[in-house]
Write a structure and sequence with these properties.
Elements: H1 28-36, H2 42-48, H3 54-62, H4 68-77, H5 82-87, H6 93-99, H7 105-112, H8 119-125
Helix pairs in contact: 1-3
Length: 134
């Protein structure tokens, strides 16, 4: 039985056996489907966060089941995922607070729509210099 090793996004979560995990295949569309599935386990999402396919990573970044530590690492490692992490309700609150003052208007706008954003930061965003963020 082959065991999936830990990748750069793994924060000490349990590795899973590849046995009978047929969607962890070379077919990116199947991996993308697993990454977007709400029933996919946190340990599998952690593994998929390390996938070379940008679409797989994007789906992991949007999946509410992705561990918060993995989301933060993904956003820090690859800016392509930042907008998706900003909209994920499982993103850690301290990281959301940082996003609320990001230079990118789009990031602030997405973060403002995140239900996990603290009220104090929402009040600040309601006075943002850009009316689309307000």
């Amino acid at each position: 039985m082959e065991v999936i090793t830990r990748g750069k996004y793994d924060q000490g979560l349990t590795c899973i056996p590849r046995l009978r995990r047929n969607w962890l295949t070379r077919d990116f569309s199947v991996r993308r489907g697993g990454a977007s599935n709400a029933r996919t386990s946190a340990s599998v999402l952690t593994k998929l966060a390390d996938d070379d396919d940008l679409g797989v990573g994007t789906n992991v970044a949007m999946n509410r089941g992705t561990p918060s530590a993995v989301l933060e690492t993904m956003a820090n490692v690859n800016p392509e995922f930042l907008r998706h992490v900003a909209g994920n309700e499982n993103t850690p609150v301290p990281f959301l607070k940082k996003l609320s003052v990001a230079a990118d208007i789009g990031i602030r706008w997405i973060a403002a729509g995140n239900a996990s954003m603290p009220a104090t930061n929402l009040r600040k965003l309601s006075r943002d210099e850009d009316s689309s963020v307000q």
